[in-house]
User: Which sequence fits this backbone?
């Protein structure tokens, strides 16, 4: 990879992280926690590859493709992202406003997307990174924001049942969006499915932006 390709691989994720951090209107998060979450996101590539590889079904059949898209990839990635937040950040005193769920989900998601760029895209031209910046990187960012919204809702729900419900709903919803997006990309040889992938991407972006507007106005509790 050339220096320009390294920059193109890393810069989109950092821009999205910067935007989300700057959007925090009330109490800024500790820099150490932000850096840790991003680094953990980059390291997430290891269990994702390992677990995804164990679960992957090598078959051209449509049921195998569905399983790989929704379980081996989407559920594994979103589930591990959620797991890190619940284990390390969810119960911390600095996680004191609903928007914090979005912040940490995005930091982890963008760390993962950056590592994915650096590992899997080493032999591609610069244009490949630009295309990923406007598709894959943004998709990871949108899915992370949506998951983070539900994590923030869970954190400040009044009952244990409501907290669990928000977490499960968030994980299932993000897995569904992520899985459909990947599925339509895999089936893009059929042409029209590529448009479905774009619809999922644009819809996720719009929803993620609405979730940012909702959560960013809620003060610390």
Assistant:
């Amino acid at each position: 990879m050339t220096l320009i390709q390294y920059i193109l691989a890393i810069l989109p994720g950092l821009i999205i992280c910067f935007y989300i951090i700057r959007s925090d209107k009330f109490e800024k998060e500790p820099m150490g926690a932000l850096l840790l979450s991003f680094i953990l996101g980059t390291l997430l590539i290891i269990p994702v590859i390992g677990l995804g590889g164990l679960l992957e079904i090598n078959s051209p059949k449509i049921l195998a493709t569905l399983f790989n898209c929704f379980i081996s990839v989407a559920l594994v990635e979103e589930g591990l992202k959620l797991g890190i937040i619940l284990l390390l950040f969810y119960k911390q005193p600095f996680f004191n406003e609903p928007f914090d769920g979005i912040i940490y989900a995005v930091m982890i998601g963008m760390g993962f997307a950056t590592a994915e760029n650096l590992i899997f895209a080493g032999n591609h031209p610069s244009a490949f990174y630009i295309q990923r910046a406007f598709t894959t990187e943004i998709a990871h960012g949108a899915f992370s924001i949506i998951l983070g919204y539900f994590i923030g809702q869970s954190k400040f729900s009044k009952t244990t049942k409501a907290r669990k419900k928000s977490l499960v709903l968030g994980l299932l919803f993000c897995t569904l969006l992520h899985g459909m997006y990947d599925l339509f990309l895999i089936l893009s040889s059929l042409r029209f499915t590529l448009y479905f992938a774009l619809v999922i991407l644009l819809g996720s972006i719009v929803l993620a932006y609405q979730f940012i507007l909702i959560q960013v106005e809620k003060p610390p509790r």
